[in-house]
Design a protein that fits this description.
By secondary structure, the chain is α/β, with parallel strands linked by helices. It has two domains: 2-178, Rossmann fold (3-Layer(aba) Sandwich); 190-332, 3-Layer(aba) Sandwich (Rossmann fold). Helix content is 41%, strand content 21%. Helix 4 crosses helix 5 and helix 9 (226-239) packs parallel to helix 10. The longest helix is centred in the N-terminal third of the chain and has 16 residues, at 16-31. The chain starts with a strand and ends with a strand. The model has no long low-confidence stretch (mean pLDDT 90).
C-alpha cells in the first residue's frame, strides 16, 4: 500500500509527532508498505528513510516558534501527492496541512488524523481557569464549525484515544474513530534501570544519591504546564526534602521554565534527549513521572513511563488520564 501523510507539524526537533512519524516509517518497512511523510522544511528535497521517505516542501517558519514551519503553497504539496498517486492520504493536522490534504482533488482514501485538540491544549490552558472549560468550548464555536466542514472532506477522522474520539463526536466532527497509539516494545522497560545514571541525574539536581528522582518529559510549550509541575514539586519538597526533579525537553518557553527551576531549587533542565535508549534508561531510573498536560491526544510520554515501571501523576483529563487509569497513578483536577 502506498500511503502519504501530509504532516504539517513534523519537525526533526519535534516531540510526539516526530516519534509517531518515525515509528510509522519503521512499521511501513516491516509490513511492506511505502510511506511518504510530506513535511514543511527549509528547502524542497527528498530524504530517503527506511520504509519510505520524507518529502520536504520549502515553507516559511512559524512566527512564534521557528522550530516548526507552515506550508505556504498548497500546489507544492499537491504536486507531491500527484507524483505519488497514493492509495491513502492522511492529513495529520486540522490546520493548513489538513486543509491541503482534504482539498487535494486526487482519488484516494482520506483520513484526518488528530495529534492534538487545540481548544483543550491552548484555549483551556489560557482561559479555562478563569472561565471554565465548558465556557471556553462554547466560545470556540467557529473552530468546531470549521472542523465539521473540514472533516466532511475525509472518509474518516482518526483520534489517538477514546477520550478525544468522544470529544470530537460530541462536537459533530465526521466519523471519529479511536486508534490508540503505543510504545516501542522492549525499549521501555523497568529492566533499563541504570543506577549510575540515576546517581548522576540526582547530582545534577543537587539531591543526595539516595534521594527520590522525579521526571518530567515533553516539549517546553505552554500547554505542557511545566511551571505547574515545578510549583507542585516545590510544595512536595516541603514534605520530602530528598526530592530532585529532572525536566527533559526543549521548546518555546524554555527560558521561563529555567527561571522557575532556579526559583524552586533542586530542579535540573536537561534539554531534549534524542537518544531513545538513553531516554528509556532515564525513565527506568526515576521514581515517578509528573506530567502537566490535560489535553494529550494519547499521552506518549505517559505510556513510555508506565511501560518503564513508573507511577505517574497526571491531570484528571485527556489521553494522559485514560492511560494513567490502567497503572499506578494519581490524577489531579
Amino acid at each position: 500500500m502506498n500511503i502519504v501523510d501530509v504532516s504539517g507539524f513534523y519537525s526533526d526537533t519535534g516531540g510526539g509527532v516526530r516519534s509517531y512519524a518515525r515509528q510509522k516509517l519503521a512499521a511501513a518497512a516491516r509490513h511492506g508498505h511505502r510511506l511518504t511523510i510530506v513535511a514543511p522544511g527549509a528547502r524542497t528535497w527528498t530524504e530517503p528513510r527506511s520504509g519510505g521517505k520524507i518529502a520536504w516542501v520549502a515553507s516559511p517558519p512559524m512566527p512564534f516558534d521557528p522550530a516548526y514551519r507552515m506550508f505556504a503553497s498548497a500546489r507544492a504539496v499537491w504536486r507531491v501527492l500527484d507524483a505519488e498517486a497514493p492509495d491513502v492520504v492522511e492529513g495529520s493536522s486540522p490546520w493548513r496541512g489538513g486543509w491541503i490534504a482534504g482539498h487535494w482533488p486526487g482519488m484516494a482514501l482520506k483520513a484526518l488524523v488528530f495529534h492534538q485538540d487545540f481548544v483543550a491544549g491552548y484555549a483551556h490552558t489560557a482561559l479555562g481557569g478563569l472561565l471554565g472549560p465548558p465556557a471556553v468550548d462554547r466560545l470556540s464555536g467557529a473552530y468546531w464549525a470549521y472542523l465539521r466542514r473540514l472533516s466532511r472532506r475525509f472518509d474518516v477522522t482518526v483520534a489517538g484515544s477514546g477520550w478525544l474520539a468522544g470529544r470530537l463526536e460530541g462536537f459533530g466532527v465526521y466519523r471519529p474513530v479511536a486508534a490508540p497509539f503505543g510504545v516501542e516494545a522492549g525499549r521501555f522497560s523497568p529492566a533499563r534501570r541504570d543506577e549510575a545514571l540515576r546517581r548522576d541525574l540526582l547530582a545534577r539536581c543537587g539531591a543526595s544519591p539516595d534521594g527520590r528522582l522525579v521526571l518530567a518529559v515533553g516539549r517546553l510549550h505552554p500547554e505542557k504546564r511545566h511551571r505547574t509541575i515545578i510549583e507542585g514539586f516545590a510544595r512536595a519538597r516541603t514534605l520530602r526534602p530528598d526530592l530532585g526533579l529532572v525536566v527533559i525537553g526543549d521548546g518555546l518557553v524554555r527560558t521561563s521554565v529555567e527561571r522557575a527551576a532556579r526559583r524552586a531549587g533542586r530542579v535540573h533542565v536537561a534539554g531534549r534527549i534524542d537518544d531513545r535508549d538513553l531516554l528509556a534508561r532515564c525513565y527506568a531510573s526515576a521514581d515517578i513521572l509528573a506530567h502537566g498536560s490535560a489535553a494529550e491526544t494519547f499521552g506518549l510520554v505517559v505510556a513510555e513511563a508506565i511501560a518503564s515501571g513508573l507511577p505517574v501523576v497526571v491531570p484528571g483529563a485527556g489521553g494522559a488520564a485514560d492511560l494513567a487509569a490502567r497503572g499506578p497513578s494519581r490524577l489531579y483536577p
